[in-house]
Automatic annotation (TrEMBL):
Pfam family, any one: cNMP_binding
Single GO molecular function: kinase activity
InterPro entries: cNMP-bd_dom, cNMP-bd_dom_sf, RmlC-like_jellyroll
The name this protein goes by in its record: cAMP-binding domain of CRP or a regulatory subunit of cAMP-dependent protein kinases
Lineage: superkingdom: Bacteria
The Cyclic nucleotide-binding domain, residue ranges: 16-103
Keywords: Kinase, Transferase
UniProt feature coiled coil, ranges: none
Length: 181
């Protein structure tokens, strides 16, 4: 996922705020209404939800990507997820009203956003099917193959959660794959 372009972002500086936050900063809490979307200048962010008392990660975002609880941001309904920084982050924060002004002012921006949303939906669909079809080891191997940057930037506990397994199971899979090399 990339940033929509070619937007003349300095032209809209008065409509967004640049913020710096430490790791583990909650940008949006599950059950609250999303009032902001974020663009990641530096850092890593995850989306997760409370699954019967267990933290379940389902998406990671990095530099050059936008993040929000799209459903809540667009509809005003409570968010189904929490948005939290994994590392210290520098973000551009924009309200729905101001983002709508930018969208209305920039030809082609809406189409770019629709493309990003479609890409995100495609990722969710692949993840959903993999959770049903693939073994935990197959899901981990796909992560190594398709998104190795996640393994370099994200703590193992969040990767295990993302894969739908415990950290102990992830450790076993990693050890098994190391022995097979």
């Amino acid at each position: 996922m990339t940033t929509p372009s070619p937007i003349n972002w300095p032209k809209y500086q008065h409509l967004y705020e640049e913020i710096s936050v430490p790791a583990k900063t909650v940008l949006l809490e599950e059950g609250k209404t999303s009032r902001y979307a974020y663009y990641i200048v530096e850092g890593a962010v995850r989306l997760w939800f409370n699954n019967k008392g267990k933290d379940t990660t389902f998406q990671f975002f990095f530099e050059g990507e936008g993040v929000s609880s799209i459903e809540s941001f667009r509809t005003g309904q409570p968010s189904m997820c929490t948005i939290e920084t994994i590392s210290a982050a520098r973000l551009l924060k924009v309200s729905k009203e101001n983002l709508d002004l930018i969208i209305d002012s920039e030809p082609g921006f809406r189409a770019n956003l629709e493309g990003i949303i479609f890409h995100r939906l495609l990722r969710y669909t692949k993840m959903f099917i993999a959770q049903i079809r693939d073994t935990p080891q197959e899901r981990y191997e796909a992560l190594i193959r398709d998104q190795p940057h996640i393994l370099q930037r994200v703590p193992l506990q969040y990767i295990a959660s993302y894969l739908g397994i415990t950290p102990v199971s992830l450790s076993r899979i990693r050890n098994k794959l190391q022995r097979e090399k």
